[in-house]
Amino acid sequence: METGSVLLLYVSSTNSWSLICNDNWDSSKAKAVCAQIGYYSDPVSRTVSASSLEATSTFLYSYVLLLRNGSIQLDPLIMETCPSGQVVSLSCAVCGTSHKQQRIIGGSDTTIENYPWQVSLQYMGQHICGGSILNSHWILTAAHCFNGTHKQVDRWRVQYGVTTLTYLFPAYVEKIFRHSKFINVEHSNDIAILKLTREISVSASVQPVCLPGYDNTLPPNSPLWVTGWGYTKEGKG
Question: What positions belong to coiled-coil segments (predicted)?
Answer without folding.
Answer: none
